[in-house]
Amino acid sequence: MSLTVNLYYTGKNGSAQAFVKEMEESGIANRIRQEKGNERYEYFQPLNDPETVMLIDRWHDQQSLDAHHHSPMMQELAKLREKYDLHMKAERYQSVDGEANDEQYLRK
What we know:
InterPro entries: ABM_dom, Dimeric_a/b-barrel. This protein has helices at residues 15-26, 28-33, 62-69, 73-83, and strands spanning 3-10, 38-44, 52-59, 87-94.
């Protein structure tokens, strides 16, 4: 079972992009990617909203996510969110054990 959280960071005047740039250049994003239980930590930008960046944040289980939330990096993240005056929206998904029968619809 995996947990996926899509986080939408929205700011003004390019602040969400600047936040992502600092997360990557400072090494915070890479440190999160190295945390036990992290399966994906990747930023994307919606084509119809240049002031928003979406983070796909996937963890092996709830315990891994909880440990991340209690790590010192969360304080660093909070400071950067404040620095760039970002507002957030979250969507949470849990994987289903077993195979979904969607392969027939995918072109590879």
